[in-house]
Amino acid sequence: MAISEFFHPAPAFFILAAIIFFSPGGKGLNPWRFLLPIPPLLAVWAAFAQQPGDFAHLKWLNATLTFGRVDSLSLFFSQIFAFVSLAGMLYSMHLKDKPQLVSACVYVGSAFGCVFAGDYLTLFLFWEIMTIGSTLLVYLNRSRESALSALRYFIYHIIGGLLLLAGIMLRYHDVGDFSMIPPMYLAENGLALHDWLILAGFCVNAAVVPLHAWLSDAYPRASFGGIIFMCACTTKTALYCLARVYPGLDVLAVLGAVMAVYGVLFACIDNNARRILSYHIVSQVGYMVAGVGLGTAVTMNGAMAHAYADSMFKALLFMAVGGLLHSARTVKIDELGGLAARLPWLFIFYMIGAFSISGVPLFNGFVSKTMTISGAASAHATWIALALEVAAVGTVISVGLKLPYFAFFGGKPQGMRRELNPIPWNIYAAMAVPAVICIIQGVCPDILYRYLPFDMSAAPYVPWTKWHVLQMLMLIAFSSLAFIILRRVITPQAGLNLDLDYFYRLLGTLIYRCVSRPLAWLDKLWGEIYRVAGLGLMLLSARLCSAFDRTAIDGLVDGTARGVQNIGQTGAKLQNSDLQRYLALAVTLALLIFALIWWLH
Amino acid sequence: MSKHEYNDPSPRKRGFWPRLPQWLIYSLLFMAALVILNFFHNTDDPHFYYDKYSGFWPAFGLVTGLVMILVMKKIVQPLIKRKEDFYGDI
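^ inputs. structure came back:
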């Protein structure tokens, strides 16, 4: 059923947020938990039924805000977000944490807002709401660690948002509108300052290396349910914007290749399962950024297909690791082990995700990742294609083998005897959603390809060829052999691996000192001035006041007092019942009055 | 699979060939089959020059994997590894 009118999914999420916010909280399970899947289901329906068009305009000041730019690109991303939010809401149904769910609704709703935004102002509005929602989702893990991480996340994204805003305003000054379209001169003169600023704003959210370290800092510490929404929405929204505004920008192709390799290298040596997956967000988004940067129809579509596939398998992997966190109360893989037999369904769902991300044939990573790589190779971007192949090897080793091997097999004796919490049914139901999509898209790529937004009828990509299957299997099998040979070397160790956030913190500390040191100096100087000059002046003025008080005020007051006293004494002297004095006084007064009258007359 | 199966400590069972667990034997056979297949069927459209030779992708996967693990674990990690509470925010 097609709908000709526009249905924006965001209000549905905002209404749900309001319902949860105002509903009475209790100790038992809350009745509103059954409402959670409704907005995502509406969004799924809208993503399939919506007709392209331009809807929902609002005049504000001198600008027209467009809330409903519906085309194949925005519908494609809304479909991704709809399925991820459906899985995330199912996953969160057992939670009693109202603020977490309210934040999740606001966050996902604003992600839809960004995707359907037709101009930069609308985009910026939802962009900032997303920042607030995601900060809360990190903060609501309710530990000191996550609170500090949320603060860093917020500062970082506010800076990113300011870059975007500065770019938008400068662009308005130069171009005269807020239209969100590729710069006309992209191919000719390069980018203007405002384009670079907008690009930097997008790159912060897309976790482009070297601006990526917020992701590996905040995501492993994010709340239980929040991470499922966050692993898809923030980076994919930024990717949508890059695909919309900067397709074919060369620098993105290089940065994307760097991201893809950098992410897997760090994933190879990390110990925290959530951080390993976070580095894989950087790596997989690298494929997409590279695809967008190369800008041919195949690589653009490869990037979009991989965005869809990655959102599904990454959500699945994060849900499986979240299941581990719920059940075993830790995600540090050096402490885990031997859980495959004790949590078989969790293991199976994890492996579906791991096969998908590794690009095993029959899973959706195979039909999306190979598309970007072979698109890059066909576009003669040989080094970029090679870097993406290296990243594919690293992906197999870190997520496909290392994480499940050390978490689900072998392990330490205390890990095998560990007491496990039972996993609620809704977590399994939630994992089934992306798992089914991963397999369906892998087996029948057309189900994914038919929604791809860019026309590639000139050079269609066929994933299921004998060579593609053989090449992928060889790459995966021999990467696995490398892992088998060196599995004692790659054994995870507890500890923290420094990333570029070391420099962010250094920069932050420097800025803090640059502000606080001069202020402290100024404060000290002011204290000295006050002590020397101010205090002396004050003492002097106090002395003057005191003198004035004693001479002028007291003199006046005392004089008045003395006057009253003297009059009283005179009056008392007069009234001494001496008749002669009374008569003399009366005569004197009478004479004076007569003299006065005479003189006046 | 367990440590016990893979590294059998009893010396009298140890021959010239190490005793491998069954899953590894099947995996190695599968890999060998893939390489053999590669000699019959190779890409028609090489992009990286060396990929016109059969056996490029197995070698690429193996060498990249080995170098990646060794460099990251033996060189990079010792340089950047710190204790868990290095930043003092846990």
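Chain A is about 70% helix and 5% strand. The mean pLDDT of chain A is 90.
thumbs up if we can close this ticket
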